Amino acid sequence: MLIKFWGVHGSIPRPGPATLKFGGNTPCVEVRCGDTLIILDAGTGIRELGEDLLRRSSVASGTRLPITGHIFISHLHWDHMQGFAFFEPAFVKGNRFDVYGVGPISGHLRATLDRQLAEPNFPLTLDDLVASFTFHDLQPVQSLQIGGVTVRVEELNHPGGSFGFRFDFGGRSLVYASDTEQVACVDDRMVELARRGDVLIFDSMYAPDQYHGLWDGIPRVSWGHSTWECAVNVALAAGVRRLVLFHHGNEDAIVEDIERRAREKFPQTTAAYEGLEIEL
Ligand SMILES: [Zn+2]
Ligand SMILES: [Zn+2]
């Protein structure tokens, strides 16, 4: 299993000098399980992933091999789908994608995506994407099989709902939990999803004092995101091997400090950055 991060910032893209180290694109993670391509979320990071996929699929003769992949959308907040219309492989005939998401929480996946692409939001419809798409509405607490990959779906604690995913392949496991708030710091369902996972990618948007409003008088409680401390507590409770802090909500210097503090409690911690690759 190969994991590569293309977008790691949360809620809104934040390009510029303050995010040069970790990157300012919103969530997108590429996962390779043998020949199976899985894409986690379609934030602005998916644009560069798409360009890279097209480069990789080109052969010397100038023809392209078709790209097939499975796109899991944790939920349809802007930062998790705003790159979708800029995913260039979607505009190449012959490519095929299965898209998984929302289900009964927010309505039908295809209709919702179509509405977000259409006027007056944007001048497209899903029919303008000439690649072949199949949409799958997910249910919470569901398992599905994609080739040799077993996928488990769990509902997370987030306004409007959000899904967490666990991927098991070849004896290795990856857990993706972006956009979730651990109100009491450790949610049993979350711990169960992450149980003994090799890698846990977890929402670590805030520092604890920031979460409680001590930095600027703005408490972020009930906004649907966690602190690095909650991420560490989940990692410890679930017995994961490695923790990746994700969905950053701060500039580089603060993310560096968050990573340092998290490592003191859970040494196998990395703050995700664009370009980070993890091979399992
Ligand atoms: Zn988000
Ligand atoms: Zn969200």
How are the SSEs placed, and which strands pair?
Layout lengths: L1 E6 L20 E6 L2 E5 L4 H13 L10 E5 L5 H4 L14 E6 L7 H9 L14 E6 L4 E5 L2 E8 L5 E8 L2 E6 L10 H7 L4 E5 L4 H4 L16 H11 L3 E5 L5 H14 L3 E3 L5 E3 L1
Parallel strand pairs: 3-4, 4-5, 5-6, 10-11, 11-12, 12-13
Antiparallel strand pairs: 1-2, 1-14, 2-3, 7-8, 8-9, 9-10
Helix pairs in contact: 4-6, 6-7
The chain binds zinc ion (2 copies).
Task: Summarize, please.
The chain is an alpha/beta fold and 280 residues long.
Key features of this structure:
7-stranded mixed sheet; alpha/beta; 280 residues; 28% strand; binds zinc ion; 7 helices
Provide a descriptive summary of the structure in words.
This protein is of the alpha/beta class and 280 residues long. It has a single domain, classed as 4-Layer Sandwich (Metallo-beta-lactamase, Chain A), CATH 3.60.15.10. The protein contains 7 helices and 14 strands. The protein has helices spanning 45-57, 78-81, 109-117, 188-194, 208-211, 228-238, 252-265, and strands at 2-7, 28-33, 36-40, 68-72, 96-101, 132-137, 142-146, 149-156, 162-169, 172-177, 199-203, 242-246, 269-271, 277-279. The strands form 2 sheets. A 7-stranded mixed β-sheet has the order 6-5-4-3-2-1-14. A 7-stranded mixed β-sheet has the order 7-8-9-10-11-12-13, covered by helices on one side. A hairpin with a 2-residue loop joins strand 2 (28-33) and strand 3 (36-40). Helix 4 crosses helix 6 (228-238) and helix 6 packs parallel to helix 7 (252-265). The radius of gyration is 18 Å and the shape is globular. The model has no long low-confidence stretch (mean pLDDT 94). Bound molecules: zinc ion (ZN) (2 copies).
